[in-house]
TrEMBL record:
Cofactor(s) demanded: pyridoxal 5'-phosphate
Domain Orn/DAP/Arg decarboxylase 2 N-terminal: 42-275
Record's subunit section: Homodimer. Only the dimer is catalytically active, as the active sites are constructed of residues from both monomers.
Modified residues (N6-(pyridoxal phosphate)lysine): K65
Organism: Lasius niger (Black garden ant)
Pathway info: Amine and polyamine biosynthesis; putrescine biosynthesis via L-ornithine pathway; putrescine from L-ornithine: step 1/1
Domain of life: Eukaryota
Protein's name in the database: ornithine decarboxylase
EC number(s) reported in the record: 4.1.1.17
Family (UniProt): Belongs to the Orn/Lys/Arg decarboxylase class-II family.
Catalytic activity: L-ornithine + H(+) = putrescine + CO2
């Protein structure tokens, strides 16, 4: 598959460059004003290596809803990862890359009828259910589907609890659903759970796996031949987090309850793979300094910074995913720290990114960086008030390029090799073409970005300036 928009390709960096140097190059070029992302493909590859080392028995099925960036899906497909899809559009996006339908689980327990029919047409036959009406629906629309019953087992502490919406009670409801599926002659192939996204309660995995073991035995006694155990999602992915404790408990539970190769174990990690791979750079376009009372009217008591991305864009994660973000000034400040707040660009008073933080005094045009911005940010971002969704620049080092360039669906056409920092810095594709039709030429120099790339300082400007003496009053 060849993608024609070269600017969306993976830029191969030299040995002296990395994701943060690219962030700095773009931000400090003087030609970039809009917010932007830098996606480090190597971070995703490293996460996959960690997963395979820590959870060797568990096959990852990436939760597409977490971040459906095309490069992310292509890289994960090349790494052999499966996919957890929640809709027919997500199914189509994955299948369009040549991924086999057997590598997809339709893991939405409440599916529209048209989506079930589409899954049947696309031969995506493994799907979840957690209620009676869903079983009847599957029986009518896709009677040969492989059904995975989803139970509820909630973590005490999770970034996004899901049990209030999905999952049947494992003790009372699940056995009844098993009997109904048997009566309907449906093929129950296994059980799944989701402890909650961003789980901070590792022991809950042990309890959930134990429940599944009991249901496996019950299903076998009814005449089913279950073979699939789906551990769901909930695995943390920020730079300062680890899955070690979760992995230790999962491995212990699998050894105790499913110590057999006859059971295929999968999971649905999302944020684990992409959270730390995306770094967002935002620019301060406005500033309001709040002064003290009448006795100290010249003293700044609080700075309000307005940046070019907010809760209607990338920071929707504050509302929908309960995330906490940490602003990092690109340049080190000096002097005393001042109580500050950071606001998005829209006209809505709810568009607040950071409520209260101590920062050195910053000025218009300064950049603020946010790490760990890959999970549940871009897929939900909107262009409310006409503000654009940040562009994503994709980078990888040479070792990552060598390991992925010939692994389908990736090919050499997916990579750009050469003087990529300059192209990234100016927001150009490898051919030197301006990919942002809204960016104007420099109003002072009269040069376009492509002309700036050319080392011809003596070239005349495209514009002729005439000096006109104003009339005397």
């Amino acid at each position: 598959m060849k993608v024609t928009n070269l600017d969306e390709r993976i830029h191969v960096l030299d040995s002296e460059s990395n994701a943060m140097t690219v962030v700095r190059n773009i931000a400090m070029s003087g030609l970039q004003e809009e917010a932007f992302y830098v996606l480090d493909v190597g971070d995703i590859v490293q996460k996959h290596q960690i997963w395979e080392k820590k959870l060797p028995r568990v096959k990852p099925y990436y939760a597409v809803k977490c971040n459906d960036n095309l490069i992310v899906i292509e890289v994960l497909a090349a790494l052999g990862v499966g996919f957890d899809c929640a809709s027919k559009n997500e199914i189509n996006k994955v299948l369009s890359l040549g991924v086999d339908s057997s590598r997809i689980i339709f893991a939405n327990p409440a599916k529209p009828a048209s989506h079930i029919r589409h899954a049947a047409a696309m031969r995506v036959d493994t799907m979840t259910a957690d209620n009676e009406s869903e079983l009847y629906k599957i029986k009518k629309l896709f009677p040969t589907a492989k059904v995975v019953l989803r139970i509820r087992c909630d973590a005490e502490t999770a970034q996004c609890p899901l049990g209030m919406k999905f999952g049947c009670d494992p003790i009372h409801e699940a056995p009844n659903l098993l009997h109904l599926a048997y009566t309907l002659n449906l093929n129950v192939v296994g059980f799944s759970f989701h402890v909650g996204s961003g789980c901070q309660d590792p022991p809950i995995y042990y309890s959930a796996i134990h429940h599944c073991k009991i249901l496996f035995d019950m299903a076998t006694n009814l005449g089913f031949k279950p073979y699939l155990l789906d551990l769901g999602g909930g695995y943390p992915g920020d730079k300062d987090t680890s899955i070690d404790k979760i992995a230790e408990i999962i491995n212990k539970a699998l050894d105790e309850f499913f110590n057999t190769d006859a059971v295929h174990v999968i999971a649905e990690p999302g944020r684990f793979y992409v959270a730390s791979a995306f770094t967002l750079a935002t620019n301060i376009h406005s500033k309001r300094s709040v002064r003290g009372d009448e006795n100290s009217s010249n003293t700044v008591t609080h700075n309000m910074y307005y940046i070019n991305d907010g809760v209607y864009g990338s920071f929707n994660c504050l509302l929908y995913d309960h995330q906490h973000v940490t602003p990092i000034p690109l340049e080190n400040g000096c002097g005393k720290m001042i109580p500050s707040s950071i606001w998005g660009p829209t006209c809505d008073g709810l568009d607040k990114v950071v409520e209260n933080i101590m920062l050195h005094d910053m000025e218009l045009g300064d950049w603020i960086i946010f790490e760990n911005m890959g999970a549940y940010t871009l897929p939900v971002a909107s262009s409310f008030n006409g503000f654009p969704i940040p562009k994503v620049h994709v980078v990888a080092n040479e070792n990552i390029w060598l390991s992925l360039k010939d692994v389908l669906p990736l090919t050499e056409d997916h990579f750009i090799i050469g003087n990529t920092p300059a192209n990234l810095r100016l927001g150009l594709d490898i051919g030197g073409n301006d990919i942002d039709p809204w960016r104007n030429a420099d109003p002072i120099m009269g040069l376009t970005s492509s002309e700036i790339l050319t080392d011809t300082p003596n070239n005349p400007s495209h514009f002729i300036y005439d000096f006109i003496e104003p009339p005397l009053n």
